[in-house]
Amino acid sequence: MALKTFSILSILIFLCVSIEAIRFDNYTLYKVLPKSLEEIKILEDLQNSGAEYDFWDDPVPTAEYINILSKPELKNDLENFMGSYGIDFLVTVPNIQKLIDNEKKGKYTRNNDKSMKWDEYYDLEDIYAWLDDLAAKFSQVSIIEGGTSYEGRVIKGIKISHGPDRRAVFIESGIHSREWIAPATTNYIINELLYSDNEEFKAATRDFDWYIFPVTNPDGYVWTHLPEGDRFWRKSRRPFGDQFGVDLNRNWNTNWLEKSSNLNPASNNYAGPGPFSEIEARSLSAYIIDMADKIDLYISFHSSGQILLLPFGNTTDPLANYYDAMWIGRRAIGALAFKHGTQYTIGNIAEAIYFATGTSVDWVKERLNIPLAYCYELRDKGVFGHALPPDQIKPTGEETMDSVIELVHQAKRLGYMVPYVEKSSASVLSVSILMYLVVAAKLFL
Ligand SMILES: [Zn+2]
Q1: 203 C-alpha to center of ligand 1: Å?
Q2: How confident is the model over 343-357, as pLDDT tens digits?
Q3: Is the peptide bond before 290 cis (omega within 30 degrees of 0)?
Q4: Ligand 1 centroid to residue 175 C-alpha, Å
Q5: CA nearest neighbour of 223 among 164, 157, 174
Q6: In this structure, which residues have their CB less than 5 angstroms from ion ligand 1?
Q7: Distance from the CA of 224 to the center of ligand 1, in angstroms?
Q8: pLDDT (0 to 100) of residue 259
Q9: CA 1 to ligand 1 centroid distance, Å
Q10: What domains can you pick out in the chain, each with its CATH number?
Q11: Annotated active-site positions, please?
């Protein structure tokens, strides 16, 4: 009996220890404002020194600011370090645990898709349940599986289709798990596509097939929600010795490992042991390959920085249809600013943010020749970063939806996207001719 009691006690103690949350009490978020290339270099050396700071942005020459998260015992060192070099900085969040405590509230009610709210963040189980319920409710919605994860989870998405013969928009989101605003915004877009009364939104839903994956790194996303997990986990969860995870947006087979990535499993930019070594990127890419000839527009959602990026990340040369893509993108960020005044910048990945290779948007552009590929770095601009408060989900969703619809609108004007037209005998010939011209034009991109 005593032994039994002891065993139960041991199990209870073990459980208490094993589910103890990784907390961020008195962790401070800094917004560092380098004034020169010299200061950028000093920050880069600090990042590479092995010091235990979490750099949410890389110190690169184009950086306007760099968010750094510091544990309490290292804050004095960091502030003294920056003071000694005259580097300006602000404290934007003195105690980031307070933000974390306020953001974990969402609970979705099964069979009530209206219970998904736009001022709460949801975990994977809730998002997947919501997608299942949408598929059960709407005849034009079906569940799609874009691949699997290392821990055996499905990369679940939905297809919205009002009939055959439509060109497609593909949305991939949440590949970096701590960027919670990306899946939340993607869910908001799904909701608008299905429920909005806006005529332009309805037309976009009707005229194209939408393939949407809110969470393409499900293991990482689950880890950011688990009590024993880490709210600021970015990578997948495959173990490498005593380290975990690959940066899944450095693992795609395009100029793999060339820029902003490395072979160190402890790094947040670990590219993996080889291109497409990771089942998440590999299986999702196989899914995309199978339908590549349908896709006119590919969108990837990340945060943060308020930047609209387009390929490529390995060169600042204006390759492929760069000028058309920039023209369309500029109008999209104009539409984004309309409702809440949120200002974005735009550029190819290498000129607007930093050289980075092995990314999904580069891969779909280079390998599959998808006409238009964009990556949104959503809100904000250095204040809350990955801890964006949930009261910003709705405005972020609204402005991003406006922007995506403007992308579609301008892409149609330039002939990159051809909406579905009901086939009357009079229109069949003209649509066929138009399709032929678009295909011919793409061959020369
Ligand atoms: Zn990201």
Answers
A1: 30
A2: 999 998 888 877 889
A3: no
A4: 7
A5: 174
A6: 176, 302
A7: 14
A8: 87
A9: 54
A10: 28-102 (3.30.70.340), 113-413 (3.40.630.10)
A11: 377
